[in-house]
Design goal:
Radius of gyration: 23 Å
Number of strands: 17
Strand order of the largest sheet: 3-14-13-12-15-16
Helix content: 25-40%
Largest sheet: 6 strands, mixed
Distance between the termini: 69 Å
Bound molecules: beta-D-glucopyranose
Length: about 450
């Protein structure tokens, strides 16, 4: 017996859910236990310096120490889309950072190729602008890309993600290159991953009396990644870590590759600038969900799920923003035209397109939970309910997606996975402007 729909030609065809599963696109059927274990195995390999899809990059930053107060410092924040510069200070007696002289522009290379000189000049201009207001001569630079960090805190770009077009920067020590273009020179320049700054910002904003056993910084925006605190003794691939103590590890979790891609993931990945890389990020992050949904809709059109006009319309669509797919699935209208509203005009086509594409967001939310579960387990914390693991979360995809609620799904999934293991955790909204706040924390922590 089949529960399939009737195709337009009268024969029985698959349901949208069967179509997705036949193409390897699983949501409910995801093997959570197996994936958590695979994440944990890759983390161990990465810490030991053996081949792993998780880079597990040491940050040489410890989250412990007293904050220097009432001293504004220059910060930079290079994200997937935007670049910001500002000064940040922590006033005595307040748990909220004061951010001033903030200006925002486009991240160089985000929409078109940029040369190294123009790339660094954009950052240098922010430093020159904020320098007169900074009372501490160091700079905290939140750079949301995969960097190897040295003990002095500089970062060497290992590869771009988020489709940034600035190939010459790969392999460069970004802090040293920027310093070459600055006068006067800063006393120190720390290049920090945004997951590291999120973790630091979350910890610095903790309310008095809060008691956590471990900390995680997690981003799900244009890209995705996770940081947590690891004992130096467990980071066996490095020999220059301070003896004793712990430091934040930037896992580069978007690179996780021990997961089966669906037909749609593969088709989308093949069209990116970095095919074969960032397999996990391409399943859950904002830069990719629209493209992924477009692959699903195009394949479904070929399979006869839409009217002829809608099928032709979707096949002719060259690209799709995640925001448009999300607004369409949530039936959320804005003043700006949405290409999917133009293509799916009948109620039947619209309902079918939503049923096929909403799982793109559902799967992303479940995978987010699975990967957070693995990091929560890895911290070794949360075994006492009065000291949960604090998961500090930032990112537009996590908080702003309308088609499904990431916070609700992630909380429910984590409860299911970690409840039986008696591991306590808390999902915390990170402070506003966490990249800049955390970059200032890193510079102003007195050790
Ligand atoms: C980058 C990470 C970053 C994450 C979130 C990824 O594409 O590789 O370094 O932390 O995006 O911004």
């Amino acid at each position: 017996m089949t529960t399939g729909l009737r195709s337009r030609k009268g024969s029985t065809m698959r349901t949208p859910e069967e179509f997705l599963e036949d193409n390897g696109f699983n949501t409910r059927m995801l093997d959570r236990t197996q994936l958590v274990a695979a994440f944990n195995r890759e983390m161990e390999e990465g810490l030991a310096g053996r081949p792993s899809s998780l880079k597990m990059l040491p940050s040489y930053v410890s989250p412990e120490g007293e904050l220097q107060r009432d001293v504004p410092v220059t910060v930079l924040d290079a994200g997937g889309t935007n670049l910001r510069g500002a000064t940040v200070e922590f006033p005595t007696g307040s748990d909220v950072a004061r951010i001033e002289h903030k200006e925002k522009g486009e991240m160089p290379g985000a929409t078109a190729y940029v040369s190294p000189d123009d790339f660094y000049a954009t950052f240098a201009a922010h430093v020159t602008r904020t320098a007169p207001f900074a009372k501490n001569p160091a700079i905290g630079f939140c750079f949301s890309y995969a960097c190897e960090t040295n003990p002095a805190g500089d970062g060497k770009l290992l590869h771009w993600t988020k489709q940034i077009q600035a190939p010459e920067i790969i392999g460069q020590w970004v802090g040293a290159e920027l310093i070459k273009r600055l006068a006067p020179k800063p006393s120190r320049l720390l290049v920090l991953n945004d997951t590291v700054t999120t973790l630091l910002a979350g910890k610095s904003a903790e309310k008095p009396g809060a008691h956590y056993s471990a900390y995680i910084g997690f981003i799900l925006g244009t890209g995705t990644n996770t940081a947590y605190v690891e004992k130096n003794a467990n980071i066996t691939k490095i020999t220059d870590a301070p003896v004793g103590g712990s430091m934040v590890i930037n896992a580069e979790s978007g690179g996780f590759a021990k997961i089966a891609q669906s037909t749609f993931d593969k088709a989308m990945d093949a069209k990116t600038h970095d095919a074969g890389a960032q397999i996990f990020e391409k399943m859950i992050a904002g830069a990719y969900l629209g493209r992924l949904g477009l692959e699903v809709l195009k394949a479904a059109a070929k399979d006869g799920f839409f009217s002829k006009e809608a099928a032709q319309g979707i096949q002719a669509l060259g690209s799709l923003e995640s925001l448009h797919l999300d607004n369409f699935c949530a039936d959320f209208k804005t003043d700006a035209p949405n290409p999917l509203d133009r293509i799916f005009t009948s109620a039947t086509d619209r309902a079918m397109a939503r049923r096929l594409a909403t799982p793109v967001f559902e799967r992303a939310a479940i995978l987010t939970a699975i990967h957070l579960a693995a990091f929560i387990v890895k911290t070794g914390g949360g075994t006492n309910p009065s000291a949960p693991v604090c998961v500090c979360i930032d990112g537009s995809t996590y908080y702003k997606t309308r088609a499904v609620s990431f916070p609700t799904i992630v909380q429910a999934e984590l409860d299911k996975m970690l409840g039986p293991r008696n591991i306590s955790f808390e999902l915390a909204v990170c402070p506003d402007d966490a990249p800049m706040v955390g970059a200032a924390v890193a510079v102003l922590l007195k050790r």
